[in-house]
Amino acid sequence: MLAGSVFFYLILMGHIRHMKHQQLQLKQNNFWKAFALDPARVPRQLEGEYLINPGAGVAADVEADSGNLAFLTQTHLLNGRAYRVTTFISAKEYRHLLIKAGIAEATIFAVLLIAIVVVNRSASRKLWKPFYMTMGAVRGYDIRQGRCLVLDANTEIEEFDRLNKTLLALIEHVDQAYRNQKQFTENASHELQTPLAIIRSKVELLSEGPGLNEDSAQLLQEIAEANERLSQMNKNLLLLTRIENGQYPEVECIEVSGLLERLAGFFQEYYVNDGIKTTVAIEGGVEVTANPALTEILINNLLRNAYIHNIPGGWVDVQLSDKGLVIKNSGPAIEGEAEKLFDRFRKGRVDNRTTGLGLALVRQIAQLYHYDIHYIHQAGVHQLSVSFR
Amino acid sequence: MKLLVVEDEPSLLNSITRYFRQEQFVCEGATTYMDALRRIEDYEYDCIILDINLPGGSGLQLLKLLREDKKRDGVIIISARDSLDDKISGLDYGADDYLTKPFHLPELSARVKALIRRKYSEGNMAIEIGVLKVDMAARAVSYAGEAVPLRKMEFDLLFFLITNKNRVVSRQAIAEHLYDGESDQAPGPEFVYSHIKNLKRALKEKGCPEIIQSVYGLGYKLEA
Questions:
Q1: In this structure, are residues A86 and A97 in contact, taking their beta carbons and an 8 Å threshold?
Q2: pLDDT tens by residue, A229-282
Q3: Cα separation of B53 and B57, whole Å?
Q4: What pLDDT score was predicted for residue A386?
Q5: Number of neighbouring beta carbons within 10 Å of residue A155
Q6: Is B2-120 CATH 3.40.50.2300?
Q7: Domains along chain A?
Q8: Taking CB atoms and an 8 Å limit, are B81 and A190 in contact across chains?
Q9: Hey, which residues does A55 pair with through a beta bridge?
């Protein structure tokens, strides 16, 4: 459009020049004809119309603008004498025409441009509306919440209808797979309970047997420990699934200070035998609103982690303020990314006392109540902090 | 005391009956719905240990029939289903207690004995081991007439060990027993260790001999 405007302007300019030339030439010819008929009676000059300069010699034609006038000077011969004849016309009108045409052209250009942009934008907004609605719905969809995704299947635009149908089918598929997966975890956990119960009962019967000696007791204890671990793992998996399914809706106000003091006390007393020193700084009256069972699991797992992933003669530092809980402990370096620690079955190192699910549970509970968890490791010191707000 | 164990898994049924026979219970077993139904109709039991999923029918159905018959047999449900809803529906049908698999045999034993104690409400709720006297109703312990001050958990621990006297009780079983109903996750051995230590100290201070023994690291045993 811009090129078109420039082209139009150039054409107009060329045409105006041509018109001026034609008119000057016509005037020149007319005047010369009149002059040639009776040179004596025609005055030499008429301001703004013509000028005759006799005997100026032969020279080339001159055509130019001078102020508001345009002039053409040509040489004519009469009776062996050369006359320089200059005719004038007003150039103002032509200039005005050009300026007005230019302004009109610029206005049309601007209005058209704005109109195109506006129309285009509103049309595309209207046209893409179903698309943006679909985008919004998909962005807001969370498979874990178990809510259905609603997409308009009749948007009046065939492509978007197809897009929505395909998306719905895909999500239905994924949702089904997710539900099956969850169901599987729960069913598998339940099915495992009976064999676990059998092993446990047999171990308990055997540990009372008359033939028990130190050697067989040792073997039995190892079986029992492995079985307890399996049982705990099973429970934790079930617990994770249940938290994910939102099966812990009951919340109450819990005094974290008291709970932490009690739990930290047990660990402190037990691990003193491993030479682990505990320092505790608990601010009183810190409360959270949460499920009591889950809160206890959260704190218990964090504490347990700090003691289990420690070094002989190490230390644990527990601090609670209204900002949150900070547990620091000495311990060997952990390989891999810190974030991965919270993944299921991700263990910092081989340890038969852990299920590999402790921190996954912590994360799940923290997510449920929107607590922030941060883990940092620096120079043999591990620090895990949970902020309750 | 007469006991009926309804459990479709023969191996687990065998463990339970064997454990209770050692405690001088008369113990019968049933592995199917029909078998259990016949026994329930024909006999009367002090306590019925009832699994829910049975070949041929549901344990809850058995429980319903039993209660419709106005039979007062004590019933403890043992089930792999451990959601609160399952527990509530079990108790609604008239069960006296609900225990989730996998359970510890000492725990089952303690529940059965508690049920029988409630049922016959023997009036005298005190247990005496030599001069050590444990009063269940008053939740008080005395040794040779002198009161032994115990905290709640320590009392529960002592009572659990006495209920299972002369039997090995694993740390895990103790942890789960003491924590019953409070959490889905029993705490680790740290917790039991601390309570055992405190209980032993409290008894020792009053001159009680070491009746609580550690059995090769398998657990603890109260000898009487």
A1: no
A2: 888 888 888 888 888 877 788 889 989 999 899 888 878 877 887 788 999 999
A3: 7
A4: 92
A5: 18
A6: yes
A7: 1-140 (no CATH), 158-244 (1.10.287.130), 252-387 (3.30.565.10)
A8: yes
A9: none
Q: Which residues of A touch B168 (CB under 8 A)?
A: 204, 207-208
pTM, full prediction: 0.67
Q: Which residues of A touch B101 (CB under 8 A)?
A: 193-194, 196-197
From the list B168, B184, B187, the residue facing A239 with the nearest CB is B184
- CATH 3.40.50.2300 domain range(s) in chain B: 2-120
Residues in Cβ contact with B20 at an 8 Å cutoff, skipping those fewer than 6 apart: B3, B5, B27, B109, B112
| Complex-level ipTM | 0.85
d(CA B165, CA B179): 20
Which residue ranges does chain B devote to CATH 1.10.10.10?
126-222
Nearest CA in chain B to A270: B190
DSSP designation for A149: P
Q: Strand ranges (DSSP E) for B11-168?
A: 26-30, 47-51, 53-54, 57-58, 74-79, 97-100, 126-129, 132-135, 140-143, 146-147
> Which residue of chain A is at minimal alpha-carbon distance from B20?
A205
Cα separations in angstroms, A285 against A146, A384, A388, B82, B118: 37, 21, 14, 34, 40
- Say if the Cβ atoms of B12 and A194 lie within 8 Å: yes
Question: By the CB < 8 Å criterion, does B125 face chain A?
Answer: no
The model's confidence at residue B183, banded by pLDDT at 50, 70 and 90, is very low
Beta carbons of B172 and A224 less than 8 Å apart: yes
Mutate which of A270, A304, A308 to disrupt the B interface (most B C-beta within 10 Å)?
Answer: A270
CATH topology for B126-222 is Arc Repressor Mutant, subunit A (1.10.10)
User: Which residue matches tokens 């601390």?
Assistant: B194
